[in-house]
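Marked as duplicate of an earlier ticket. Keeping the data here for the record.
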Amino acid sequence: VEWANERVVDMVIRPTHVLDPVCHVRPKGGQLEDLLAEVKQRAGRKERVLAVALTKRDAEDLASYLIDNGVRAGYIHSGLNTVERADALKSLQSGDIDCLVGVNLLREGLDLPQVSLVAILSADSEGFLRCETSLLQTIGRAARNAGGEAILYADRVTKSMEACLRETERRRTK
């Protein structure tokens, strides 16, 4: 700090050198249909989607809904063993599936440049996986793709969401 004449520089650089994704907040009403359309659009461009649900059951149900509607999808959560989780990630990377639905995608150490969209369902539910830091890290899963976007499905903007969106925009403009 002394060498810099007491000036502090905030370096916001992702290892990928790609900007944080553009974020959108959309209402929860119709989120399944909206997500389905987003996944199909990206699948047509050979891009992948990560969808984040609140519970293991929600993840499984959402994956089933997507499959029933013509999307190649799978799920990942702590109920799967290590090999099954690795296989799910490989399926997404290789293009065997277009959408992977999970609960806590922070623990997987994901580096998936194929993912152009991270969709967070029920983003306005307060809790550990919807706190500012978790939201930032989850949204960051789309920061490996130059066209990365994030959709937060919510009926209200929580304090955590507001702080996350503000920080993401700050990073994008630096």
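See parent ticket for discussion. The radius of gyration is 17 Å.
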